[in-house]
What we know:
This protein is an alpha/beta fold. The chain is built from five helices and six strands. The strands form two sheets. The chain has a four-stranded parallel beta sheet, with helices on one face. A two-stranded antiparallel sheet has the order 5-6.
Amino acid sequence: MQEGTKLSERSGTLADDPFSGRRPTSHERLTGLPWDASDHDGPAPWDIGRPQPAIARLASEGGFAGAVLDAGCGTGENALHVASLGLSVLGVDVAETALAIAREKADDRGIEVELATADAFRLERLGRRFETVLDCGLFHTFDGDERPGYVASLASVTEHDGWNVAAIDPDRLQTRYHDDGAPAWLATIKRI
Ligand SMILES: C[S@@+](CC[C@H](N)C(=O)[O-])C[C@H]1O[C@@H](n2cnc3c(N)ncnc32)[C@H](O)[C@@H]1O
């Protein structure tokens, strides 16, 4: 990990600010590192170099429709997979390093996908609407104080009619360190 990216060493000037002016998230405050540091020493623990099986399964079952937003896309495996099926996908993240890796993969694989730096708490700045939002591993990093702000931000880029929690099922999240993945919840929230 590069010493210069440590939270405690913030310079206070915007140019050197690893958070680009945004408030560090609870996870960043806890670890003392900006999200961007996750990919500085090789792939992050959650970066398995292929789409999460649960996401690929969802996609094969037609779980994605219309314009898709991948919030906290990381190095883009899920976003690239969904885009490779012909859907219009925007992947956003605060980690420039992860986004650069995702862009390189998209180029190498010839997959058309939009990738942009954006804060999941300020999605209204995108000025766009999405029919499907994918969140793989982002929501769970937010603490209880942050979650309402994230939900409001999601509401600003989705239709406003009612949403219903259709299912919350146990699943597995593959990582670089678990043989059979880590326990996870697969939540499906649908418009009424
Ligand atoms: C656990 S990783 C999951 C990455 C990716 N979804 C995957 O499944 O491989 C969480 C991702 O969310 C991003 N992230 C964290 N806080 C964010 C925020 N406020 N806005 C946008 N992205 C954020 C991190 O940079 C990181 O790439």
